[in-house]
Amino acid sequence: MSWRVTAYRAVRPAFFLVEPERVHDLTLRLLRAAGRAAPWLCRFASGVGEPVSDPVELMGLRFRNRIGLGAGFDKDGTAIEGWAALGFGFVELGTVTPRRQAGNPGPRLFRLSRDEALINRMGFNNAGAEALAERIAEARPRLPPGFVVGVNVGRNRDANPADYPWVAERVAPVADYLAINVSSPNTPGLRQLQDPAMLRSIVESVADAAGGRPILVKLSPDLSDGERDGILSALDGAPYSGLILSNTTVTRPGIRSRRLAQEAGGLSGRPLMGRMIAALEATRGAGVVIASGGIASGGDVRLALDAGADLVQLWTGMIYAGPGLIGEAVRAC
Fold first, then answer.
1. Which contacts of 192-200 are long-range, i.e. CB under 8 A and separated by 24 or more positions?
2. CATH, residue 186
3. Which whole-number Å values give the CA distances from 226 to 106, 163, 183, 254, 282, in the listed order?
4. Domain hosting residue 188, numbered range
5. Cα distances (angstroms) measured from residue 5 to each of 2, 233, 294, 299, 317
6. Which helix (H) or strand (E) holds 111?
7. Alpha-helix runs per DSSP H in 39-125
8. CB 195 within 8 A of CB 186
């Protein structure tokens, strides 16, 4: 554990006195400002330093390193330059929908501190696809070479699968890759789109709208081995590049924070690590695979890469370990 992570853990209780979503929003605003005015401060906080490049070529893209930010942290591209300054190799923005959407009523984000986990039922709160496309285009000239920008696409709460190609058409001109989200538990009916035939149809429609951008599919960790195998069989030969494993879970594996575990929503963080590794091992050869879920240390990054991941995303782990986790993760590759 780096001294940055140790120092963050010492002050973390003060942050946790504030409601989680308020801290989240403030973090994005501060990171946006620092990324533009003081990128050196971001590099110091993460410990990535210079150079940040250990490049890898995947899906026809050049990533400056294998560590990225998972979807859901920065839905609207608020702090794109800040994520680059922290030393990430890529960022996945969204989930974004065609129209602006407020999401579910609050409170909708909960810390399970004893488990180093979160439960969220945000509900795809975002400003819409056109607003995100404008923010990416505005940030592009200030982004360093090899910093890849992905966009996670979804549907509005009251809409249908036609939303996916609609979003793809609008964000593809400014995105490097697209990720299809059919696995969030917080939008009614969304997980039903993991039906193999339906999912293949969505992939094909997004590919038609995406202008040649690589496409990834984000799956639920709650799929059985047979269900996941059925999806992979249905996608055989489809125009997609690989998988993101995995989204949040509606189960509560080994949770000690029993009162909060009763909250509805998707669970993320440490409890997902074992399930994510098992999914990686079961999907070797399924194209490019991004490990997402449960990564809380450099050692976890190494386990994910050894299990077959090509890239690794951080999210909940940073809430508990701070930005120093980024430096640990990059050095573990």
1. 193/161, 194/219, 194/220, 194/223, 194/227, 194/231, 196/230, 196/231, 196/233, 196/234, 196/235, 197/234, 198/161, 199/231, 199/234, 199/235, 200/234, 200/235, 200/238
2. 3.20.20.70
3. 36, 28, 16, 24, 11
4. 3-332
5. 5, 42, 16, 14, 11
6. strand 109-112
7. 39-46, 80-86
8. no
Residues 6+ apart with CB under 8 A from 177: 59, 61, 148, 150, 151, 213, 214, 215, 216, 241
**Which pLDDT tens digit goes with each residue over 131-144?**
999 999 999 999 99
For the chain, counts of helices (H) and of strands (E): 13, 13
Does the pLDDT of residue 93 top 80, yes or no?
yes
CB 244 within 8 A of CB 94: no
Mean pLDDT of all residues belonging to the chain: 97
Picking from 324, 267, 274, the residue whose alpha carbon sits closest to that of residue 298 is 324
Structure tokens at 298: 């450099």
Instruction: Assign 299 to helix, strand or coil.
Output: helix
The confidence band for 117, taking pLDDT boundaries of 50, 70 and 90, is very high
What is the C-alpha to C-alpha distance for residues 28 and 73, in angstroms, rounded to an integer? Answer: 9
Counting the structural domains of the chain, the total is 1
pLDDT tens for each residue of 243-279: 999 999 999 999 999 999 999 999 999 999 999 999 9
Q: Which residues are catalytic?
A: 184
And the tokens for 60?
């026809």
CA geometry: angle at 128 spanning 124 and 130, to 5°?
150
Three-state DSSP at 251 gives coil
pLDDT bracket for residue 51 (50, 70, 90): confident
Q: Which residues contact 185 (CB under 8 A, 6 or more apart)?
A: 191, 220, 247, 248, 249, 250, 265, 266
pLDDT in tens, 181-200: 999 999 999 999 999 999 99
